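DM from R.C. (forwarded with permission)

"hey, sorry to bug you on a friday — could you get me a structure for this? deadline for the figure draft is monday and I only need the backbone to look sensible"
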Amino acid sequence: MSEMSVERPPLLEAALEYLNSGLSLVPLKTDKSPLIKTKGFWSEPPTEAQLAKWFACGLPAQLGICCGTISRGGVWILDADDRNAVDFIEANIAGGLMPPTPRIVRTRRGKHFYYKNRPGFPVKAQQKKLSAGFFDIRGETHYGVAPPSRMAWHITDGKGVIIETRYWEYIWEEEGPWEDLQEYTATEFWKLVGADSGRRTDFPGGGAGEPRDPDFQFFAAADEGERNVRLTQAVGKLVWQGLAYDEVLRLACLINSDYNPPLPDKDVLTVAGSIWRTHRRNHPGGTSLPDLTDETLEDCLTFQEIAETAPSANEWLIDQSFLRNQLGIIYGAPGCGKGLFSANFIVRLACGLPVFGQWEPAAPVRCLVISGEDTTNIMHQRYRAVLDTIPEKKRKLAAGHVLFKSGDVSLIRQKRRGEIEPHEENLDWLKEKLTDYQPELLLLDTLTLFMGGDENDNQGMNTACSLLKSIIKDHSCNIILNHHTNKIAGDIITDSRKLQATLSQTSLRGASAIAGAIRWALMLVPLSTALTRRLVKDSELKASDGTYVMAKVVKKNMGPPEREIILSKADGFMTKIFSSEAAEEALSAAEADEDAALVAAVLEKHGEQSFSELKRRLKSGGMSEKHAQTAIACAAGQREIGTCRKGARTYYSIKKEEDLI
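My reply, with the result:
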């Protein structure tokens, strides 16, 4: 009997082909959401075994291609999400203003155009609805649906109830070699789109009766289940423009003609008449409302949208703690360790590691650190000390993820109280670096050196914070300021009651405008050794006052409450010795991984160590006896750490690469 060949499922076959072409993949549900947690797939592609599990074992998985440097060094997707956007891109490719691409996917509403970003110019995800069309750029830590996936398309009754589900299969319209992807940046594309300032001419009823806002999304075509809602919104928009009733009715009929299928004429007449009469009854003085522009309307969220649509998921820079594109602050007493904490914070975010087991980045974070307080050499020493606590493979991941600058970087100058002016030269420099490097996080150390004015001047600080918010909006990044507490909160805390009173926003020094503008605040409180012993229930702690610091997030927009942690300052870095929730019992998975990483870093630096030697080195970094023992046990349970017996002693070491294969 001849041997029968086993035919692979189409999705698995395609997934293996993509993987062999240098692309990282993620499994998706039929609603385009991830089937699993996607965090790891922007640092390491899946294995063939994982692909087989996803696409050959009956799971309802569809294919997603991960964008960013993980795929062929920097694949990104330009999603033309409507017909106008497709026409715009194809016309510019044909005209030589955009490079052609060998990879184009046909979607339900438009097309995906694949490009490769230029080195040093990572692409960020961004959506814009412009006169040229609706564009959605998929960049770092995002993905695009890939053929031959089939995605669900729900038809509703206009009230959110699904009455029919259809499926759309994604197919390659162009399927050339991945090696032929052209280098192109999102910045170049947005400049090209910005040059297209012309108005659309394909809107029904163009000419003298054309509304002032032809791009408004509700004028687009609609399918069954969406038609009544879309037509009501479109007619309301037309009436708002101040058009005569016969013109509103004419345009409503033309809009309806694009629906699939069109509504009956009597329904169009009923909708137009009802909205027209309601508007005239509410505004008898005229057919339009004065002093309100189209831009004002588009910025508003209607109650109907709240009732009929699900809110989009939060995008986190730090999971469940710090939302993307927000202003934050790290504050504490002078000398409490803000610089050390910030160094640990930045390095671990850049590596994609949780910070002290507490703050976990959604993916490795690109950071720009600017210090007006420290010299370049001090920054070098501090960040190098932190890097020595990170495993070698994580250090490689951080390469290219952090950029440093020290010196005079003041962004504003105070002319007189209540009046400030931008420092144009430094602002231009900063904006150039943000445009070229495209960091996701900008750390400014300290606030007073950047603001250049009276921190107690409420009007001036309000203007300064508005400047920072405009930078966040223009460059899609988070900003964290380092700042000092007030004098009272700057004392070393010796009493538990005073500690709780200190952990608040009222400890922040300066104008109330600062506290009002920030959306995430982390406070550092210096503790006496005696108080630390009582909190961690460890009478063996021996160190001078100020060695121990409590850290806690005291303000944030979203997410659950966060526990307090206690840190020990060592030579150039910090070590967590206590968590108010995990206590001394079992550490969480994230905390265990971080402890194991610290053990691995010690072994990489000092080579093979006996149990007692390894424990002693960990204790010298601030760990308690019990914590050090737990950390060693966590590391020994990981595949990369090896153990061997020599006489009565156990020795630990990093396994050689050939032992891991």
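R.C.: lifesaver. Residues 1-6, 195-216, 286-297, 582-587 have pLDDT under 50 and may be disordered.
me: no worries. Residues 265-282 form the longest helix (18 residues).
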